[in-house]
Amino acid sequence: MEWHQLPLGPLQTNCYILSKEDNTCLIFDPGEESGKLRRFIEQKQLKPLAIILTHAHFDHIGAVDDTRDEYNIPVYIHEKEADWLLDPALNGSHFFEMGKLVRGKPADHFITDEKELKVGDFSFQIFETPGHSPGSLSFYFKDAGLVISGDALFSGSIGRTDLPGGNQDQLLRSIHEQLLTLPEETIVLPGHGPATTIGQEMDSNPFLNGF
């Protein structure tokens, strides 16, 4: 399996495309610039199977509807943020002057708990990692040795917790109990910025020391 990082939109939110040898792929957090995402998919001759969201802040969902309609694929999100796709006040686009309000259609599938999810030939574990937002999720691909952490854990930092539904103590618990228990060599693919590893964050992330 290959992974591709595609920063999109004014906040350079990382969209991830994970692909198999048969060119099927999953799309995580198509935040903006649907045309750029479409060109990438066409260039690589990929066949999208689904859109999966780590959470529903506006900078992670701006291209969801265009991408869903383009490829006729389902959207997955945590049930706690089901309404966020529809409501600019909940997804934050109402409060940040980034050019437009984000108001989309409902998701097709709602994630209610931690489990293993299978989409096509992709199998991965769902971790609930709230704190940045109530329905934040991380997705662990054990065979590939990587976890998509959304805005929970970054290289050298953690997600902000001053937005509605944020809670720093809860976020730190999520990181320590769900992410830092993974093998240290696990690659972390965050919602913004460069990739890192669990071991690197355990050793040097200043926000995680002393918790």
Automatic annotation (TrEMBL):
Residues 12-192 form the Metallo-beta-lactamase domain. Gene3D superfamilies: Ribonuclease Z/Hydroxyacylglutathione hydrolase-like (3.60.15.10). Keywords: Hydrolase, Metal-binding, Zinc. The keyword Hydrolase applies. InterPro entries: MBL_Glyoxalase_II (IPR051453), Metallo-B-lactamas (IPR001279), RibonucZ/Hydroxyglut_hydro (IPR036866). It holds the Pfam family Lactamase_B. SMART domains: Lactamase_B. Its cofactor is Zn(2+). This is MBL fold metallo-hydrolase.
